[in-house]
Amino acid sequence: MDKYNFKRPKLDIPKSTFQKVFDGFTLIVFTAGIVHLIAVWGQLPDQVPAHYNAAGEVNRWGSKWELILLPIIAAILAIFMTFLEKHPEWHNYMNLNENNIEFQYKNSVLLLNVIKNECVLLFVFIDYNIVQVALGKAESIGILFLPITLTVMFGSIIFFVVRSIRHK
């Protein structure tokens, strides 16, 4: 199969149970995050944490209206990535051939689903933590936030890339 001239077929890759459950869980957490933000809005000071340094400490304060940006960005990201999940023929592959195309499509769609949900959950967590710091219930996002986030995100990517390479 010539990798430059090959027109990848569009296969119907239905969502696995895991993907449906993960999407549902993320939607529930996302909705709860928005409900929480609405519930505490009146209690928030005008200035809330707007940025954290690598140690998890607040290094910029901004308007509480900036809190609205995180759910908006998360929703746009989720919609876009859900759209891309439906088109695995557009994704990049290293070892695609007639014998493994279905596996590679499923693997790529699952990777995209996991990263999408991790990102949305990350945005919800950050928004929630900003509220906690602004209300004086926490001092920072914590020093472990960055290493844990990077480990989870890159760990997921590495897992699926290795899985793809092993399934030539």
From TrEMBL:
Record-annotated DUF1648 domain positions: 29-74
Pfam families: DUF1648
Domain of life: Bacteria
InterPro entries: DUF1648
Transmembrane segments: 21-44, 64-84, 119-135, 141-162
Keywords, in A-Z order: Membrane, Transmembrane, Transmembrane helix
Name of the featured protein: DUF1648 domain-containing protein
Organism annotation: Sporosarcina koreensis
